[in-house]
Amino acid sequence: MTITHTSNAFLQVQNSSLYGIFAWSQRAAQVISTKSWLMAIEIFVDPTSVLDAYDRFQASKNVIIEDTTKVELAPYKTILETETGILLVADQTITLFGRGFRSFIEKSDQFQLSSFSHYSHLILPYLFSQIPLEDDIKTITNVNDFKELVEQLAEIGFLSPATGTIHWGDLKKTVPICQAFGLTRGTPVDRYYLSQFIHEVRSQVCGNILEIGGTPKDKDFYEFSSHCSYRILNLEPGPGVDICGDVHDASVLDPNSIDSILIFNVLEHCYAPWKAIENIHTWLKPGGKCFAMVPNAIRLHATPMDYWRPLPDAFKWMFQCFSEYQLFIYGNPITVIASYHGIAVEELTVSELNAFHPDYPVATCIVARK
Questions:
Q1: Shortest CA distance to 165 belongs to which of 338, 49, 332, 334?
Q2: What band does 117 get if pLDDT is binned at 50, 70 and 90?
Q3: Is the pLDDT score of 121 beyond 80?
Q4: Residues 207 and 229: beta-carbon distance below 8 Å
Q5: pTM of the prediction?
Q6: CB neighbour class for 138 (10 Å; exposed up to 12, middle 13-18, buried from 19)
Q7: 123-173 confidence digits (pLDDT tens)
Q8: Residue-wise pLDDT tens digits, 309-323
Q9: Do residues 23 and 11 make contact, with C-beta atoms less than 8 angstroms apart?
Q10: What is the 3-state secondary structure (H, E, C) of the chain?
């Protein structure tokens, strides 16, 4: 099946370097250091296959921009040199936003430059000619070299499937693939991330341990030291429940009495999770630690109620009463989709599971010290 790519890049000069930036993203900007990247991004403005794009790439190597075109482009080049402009290179458009993303939203100070690019595919190298980019155009001598370039740009996110060509396959469903988080197919994605977190912090969990909302079998799954004491606090009595009570009620436990408190996949079920965290802080001994996890991308699971999906910034805010904390954030677009659809861990590769994208958390964990 022939794949048709199109460009998907926002370009901006910052501190005398050229970057591909990611709109409203926590992801770090990507340095662009070679002319081949710019040229390829420009070629894919017109959605095309890799082979057709390679032909255009080769044909453009010896094209020279006319002086009249340079004169017409000069005002736009000046805007980009001031670091206030952002250049969007996307499906059939090259648009300069004179006031950055403000112009993108307000539809003001926008300049359409697509017409300049139709014949040469070289206006991007010219618009950013003040940046000392590596001139590597002649090193790409065959289609395999070009394919590697395209794959690299697509992996970063500067190239995407052309509009209307996405192949949904098994994901184009209005019901999930597994309605039980992935349990009917294997291991749920959030359970994988909890295991990763436990592996990171296991050596810190010690002393008098309390798990809130846990079950007796959890201790074996966590593999904590046998020298630690382990109790469970739950809303309802049951086998293995040591303390029956509500985490919102500070009187359930004595202040300054616990060394380590675990609360995994529970705070989203608390009507006031910040109050629960305040109580956890009260119950911990000075220097004691709380180990918590909340899901960010997971279907509703009302047991008994499902109130919140605290995101990383909210999680940090709720733990501000602690003297120090460390966040552990897991997830990327693939695992967000897998989590919602109930696609199991066993159906993904380790690299797919471990890839991290700050804008697509599946689970957020924290270690907080009193």
A1: 49
A2: confident
A3: no
A4: yes
A5: 0.90
A6: exposed
A7: 999 999 999 999 999 999 999 999 999 999 999 999 999 988 999 999 999
A8: 999 999 999 999 999
A9: no
A10: CCCEEEECEEEEEECCEEEEECCCCCCCCEECCEHHHHHHHHHCCCCEEHHHHHHHHHHHCCCCCCHHHHHHHHHHHHHHHCCCCEEEEECCEEEEECCCHHHHHHCCCEEECHHHHCCCCCHHHHHCCCCCCECCHHHCCCHHHHHHHHHHHHHHCCEEECCCCCCCHHHCCCCCCCCCCCCCCCCCHHHHHHHHHHHHHHHHCCCEEEEECCCCCHHHHHCCCCCCEEEEEECCCCCCCCEECCCCCHHHCCCCCEEEEEEECCHHHCCCHHHHHHHHHHHEEEEEEEEEEEECCCCCCCCCCCCCCCCHHHHHHHCCCCCEEEEEEECCHHHHHHHHHCCCHHHCCHHHHHCCCCCCCCEEEEEEEC
Confidence of residue 1 (pLDDT cuts 50, 70, 90): low
**Domains contained in the chain, CATH given:** 4-161 (no CATH), 189-369 (3.40.50.150)
Other C-beta atoms lying within 10 Å of the C-beta of residue 310: 20
CA distances from 243 to 67, 164, 246, 259, 328 (A): 81, 56, 9, 16, 29
| Antiparallel, parallel or unpaired: β 17-21 and 30-31 | antiparallel
Give the strand pairing for 324-330 and 258-264: unpaired
Q: Which of 266, 324, 261 is nearest to 290 (CA)?
A: 261
Residue closest to 370 by CA, chosen among 309, 324, 328, 327 = 324
Contact predicate 57/38, CB 8 Å: no
Q: Say which amino acid occupies 6.
A: T
